[in-house]
Amino acid sequence: MKNIFDAPFLKEMTDITSLMYRLGWDERNGGNISYMLDENTVREYLDTENVIREIPTGFDASELTGKIFIVTGTGKYFKNVKDDPENNLGIIRIAKDGTTAELLWGYSDGGRFTSELPAHLMSHIQRLRVNPENRIIMHCHPDYTLAMTQVHEADEKKFTRTLWGQMTESIVVFPDGIGVLPWMVCGTNEIGIATAEKMKQYRLVIWTLHGIYGAGKDMDETFGLIETVEKAAKQYILTANLPKASAITDDNLRALAAAFKLDYRKDFLD
To answer: pTM for the whole thing?
Structure first.
């Protein structure tokens, strides 16, 4: 059996958490990631019959029974993941009852997965219905995206259109737009349900005054979605009170969509 510390999926998790911490997107113990793994790949590194302990999930995820995830731990700092992954990460499998996680590796100090795991599982379920290749749910607190939620109307059409108008790449990267939720208490099933409902249409969901959820088939896609939103939000915050000499028009956006053959939210343009 191969050494788990050499597993590519573990390296992906340690690399991305370190990067997100350095960017300031995951202060203290803020933010969380869940990554659905291929069972055959996991078996190369772990005895999947060896269940260390069982942990209630607080949510019936029967649709994900048997699925294996590597998940950041509750109360853990992203900055510490790279140096001590076995303490700060865990590999879990959704048990047959749908409401229990079987710990296969990690959380070595007796800890458990992020308190927002139910929200992650709900979003995984919804995104897998839309795209069977979905593997990643990523939550973080990017500075300019958060700042934008303080000064911009929390309307999905208007929020998306503003971001599309900040730079040419925006509509190319997230042509499906962005879902926006009002402020809600985090770590609850209620916000998980609301987020999953938005995930029927969007790969990105903003939690007003809190952060953003992104979904994708791999780390690059998911990180890239959030990274592009954050860049566009930064342009908005930096220029919102300045006179505009140039602007991306609706016709410009339609031309981009035609050139890149985008399936975009046409109803988000006037």
So the answer is: 0.95
